[in-house]
Design a protein that fits this description.
Helix content: 10-25%
Radius of gyration: 31 Å
Oligomer: single chain
CATH class of the largest domain: Alpha Beta
Number of domains: 4
Strand content: 25-35%
Number of strands: 33
CATH superfamily of the largest domain: Endonuclease/exonuclease/phosphatase
Largest sheet: 6 strands, mixed
Structural class: alpha+beta
CATH architecture of the largest domain: 4-Layer Sandwich
Strand order of the largest sheet: 15-16-14-13-26-25
């Protein structure tokens, strides 16, 4: 009598005959642990060789009709000579739970014939996270397109998280306190259920693709594009493989080539207009080595090369740059490098000291395009971690005037959080209460500056540390500022999710001059292992990609559409400059607080530093080469002088 191809063979001496489904059971642990069993199935995948997962997968389709039990099983066999895909085998071995994976070890086999297994389709998001167990060891296929949404372990472990679409931070799309995302309530929890539901969908949308190897830092790195990278946003259709479990995660081990369509590296977005502004988080540019940024001079050199490449490519006329070390040397080092690359005098920096030894935000501007016409205003009370700067500019050639402001609110890190600053479970993280207070103070501060200066056009850029639908953004919109929707949709990635932490806001008169806003995806989609650190030297590329951890935002605007008739009232000028031949004198208003004056050449190099004595600083120009120089009295003002 011919035996049914999936009827278990009985070997009472070697072990009890059980189906794969019975061995897997309906729970996370096999009911046959430490027992010898004999089972049967078709080989769906074989992984052997150096650093492989060492074994093969068997499957007995629909072996018990119970969808809660898996039809597949992994057989650990470092040298399974003679085993090939498509064989129908009888296998005898000992059942073990190896770090959560049900498998057979010390296995022997007999070839019974051949067979085929059709992959089981799995649609994402999966119904429940515990549903992965019912597919453990099975051959599966994911119909349609999957996208790479997390490449952080790609270089080191050959792993990629995939999902049907880019997985977004819930609060980038859903407002915790407004059902309508256009609502501007800055507090409350009435819509938190929508945040929780969105997060649940995101959590069930991932599948982890593995390269079926156990070694670290595979060489070559699997699935790389022609440039050697693997960007988030790359896609694959009809992914097929077996479900494996290792290191605490269910993974797909592909059973053939994975035909990725690679997301290309983008060029600088076109935002139109006659002028361009940018906001960029420089990711801890420190010349003090071994602190938050570079560990040594070689790392600093590579970090500098990448950052300069990014700023040069953007070619913005004015920039808000965050996370520069809170020492003058870091600012001067960056400006000198920029001007050494782009040409003497291309950029000048405006900055003010922050508290402690952390970071500061600075303003870079092109003196050939813009002229400072107000004090360098700053707000730096005890609720802030660093000064928020505002500078009034005149556009050379059109005489248009605008205020440009930096933004870098308190981060979401929970270190030191207490009371209302603790995570409230609404998706906004820690210190949301402090970020709201910071925004309230800034809105009042900016309103006063517009009134004092008479300049109504204002552009605000930087790292807001708040996603698009979170309270601080609501408060800014509620104040009457116009949110500049970013073409490109996200500027930061964390924990396999994306969203916009970097934004741009404008007053009505500034909004009318804006021609476009976009984000340049040079960091968020790149593997973090492509940065400047020594550990990543083999992957280092001297370009703008992975020059930071946020993507820069660019805004285009027409200088000719800015008002030309507004000037700062002379009675409010905090600094008066008088030049008499080869001598210049700066006098500050009574009660003004500043330590002294600094004079820079057109390259941005510091030429002189002079203390203020009784509110006066004087500089002899004799010996200085003729030309344009930049002066700056931190917190009070900056401008240009020409030495004949």
């Amino acid at each position: 009598m011919r035996r049914h191809p999936f009827l278990p063979l009985l070997f009472p001496i070697l072990g009890s005959a059980q189906t794969i489904c019975a061995i897997q059971g309906s729970g996370t642990t096999s009911p046959y642990v430490d027992q010898q069993v004999t089972t049967e199935g078709v080989v769906t995948a074989v992984f052997t060789g150096s650093n492989s997962i060492n074994g093969y997968f068997l499957e007995h389709p629909d072996c018990d009709g119970n969808t809660n039990t898996s039809n597949g099983l992994f057989v650990y066999a470092p040298n399974p000579g003679g085993v090939a895909v498509g064989q129908r085998l009888s296998v005898t071995g000992t059942v073990v739970e190896f770090n959560g994976l049900t498998e057979l070890t010390s296995a022997t086999f007999t070839v019974l014939g051949s067979g085929t297994v059709n992959p089981t389709p799995i649609q994402l998001p999966i119904g429940s996270l515990d549903h992965w167990e019912r597919h453990e060891g099975m051959l599966v296929r994911f119909p349609g397109q999957l996208m790479v949404v997390d490449n952080s372990n790609w270089s080191q472990y050959g792993e990629l998280y995939l999902a049907p679409e880019r997985t977004m931070v819930p609060t980038d799309r859903f407002d915790p306190n407004d059902t309508d995302p256009d609502g501007t309530n800055g507090a409350g929890v009435s819509n938190v259920a929508a945040i929780t539901a969105a997060q649940d969908v995101v959590d069930r949308s991932y599948v982890l693709l593995d390269d079926a190897h156990t070694n670290s830092w595979p060489n070559p790195t699997p699935w790389a594009d022609a440039g050697g990278t693997m960007r988030n946003g790359s896609t694959v259709n009809g992914l097929t493989g077996v479900i494996h479990f290792s290191y605490g995660e269910y993974k797909v081990e592909p059973t053939g080539p994975v035909p990725f369509v690679h997301a290309p590296r983008p060029t600088v977005p076109q935002v139109g207009g006659s002028l361009r502004a940018a906001g960029y988080n420089a990711h801890n540019y420190f010349t003090t080595l071994g602190e938050w940024g570079a560990a040594n001079s070689a790392e600093l050199g590579r970090q500098r090369t990448k950052l300069v490449a990014a700023i040069q490519a953007m070619d913005a006329d004015v920039l808000a740059l965050c996370e520069i070390e809170n020492v003058d040397e870091a600012v001067e080092d960056l400006v000198a490098s920029l001007n050494g690359t782009m040409g003497a005098g291309t950029y000048v920096a405006l900055e003010a000291n922050a508290f402690g030894q952390g970071t500061r935000a600075i303003i870079l501007y092109k003196p050939t395009v813009l002229e400072p016409i107000t004090a360098l205003y700053q707000l730096n009370t005890n609720i802030f971690q660093r000064p928020h700067l505002t500078q009034g500019f005149r556009v050379l050639g059109t005489e248009g005037r605008f205020l440009f402001s930096t933004m870098h609110l308190r981060s979401k890190l929970c270190d030191g959080a207490s009371g209302g600053n603790e995570d409230q479970g609404d998706g906004q993280g820690c210190f949301n209460s402090q970020r709201r207070a910071q925004v309230d103070a800034l809105v009042d501060h900016w309103s006063g500056l517009r009134s004092t200066s008479g300049i109504t056009a204002q552009l605000i850029m930087g790292d807001f540390n708040a996603y698009t639908q979170e309270d601080p953004i609501d408060l800014l919109r509620a104040s009457g500022l116009s949110y500049q929707a970013v073409e490109g949709g996200y500027s930061f990635g964390y924990a396999s999710m994306f969203g916009s932490l970097d934004h741009a806001f404008a007053t009505t008169s500034m909004d009318q001059a804006i021609t476009g806003t976009a984000v340049w995806h040079i960091n968020t989609d790149e593997p973090s292992t492509f940065d400047y650190q020594d550990a990543n030297l083999s992957r280092y590329q001297p370009n703008a990609f992975r020059s930071g951890d946020h993507d820069p935002v660019l805004v285009g605007f027409n200088g000719g559409q800015l008002s030309t008739g507004l000037r700062e009232p002379t009675t409010a000028a905090p600094v008066v400059f008088v030049q008499d031949g080869t001598y210049g004198q700066w006098r500050v208003a009574e009660g003004s607080r500043s330590t002294g004056l600094r004079l820079f050449d057109r390259r941005g190099a510091l030429i002189k530093e002079v203390p203020l004595i009784d509110g006066v600083a004087g500089v002899e120009f004799e010996g200085l080469a003729p030309g344009c120089y930049i002066w700056n009295i931190p917190g009070l003002g900056a401008g240009r002088i020409v030495i004949p």
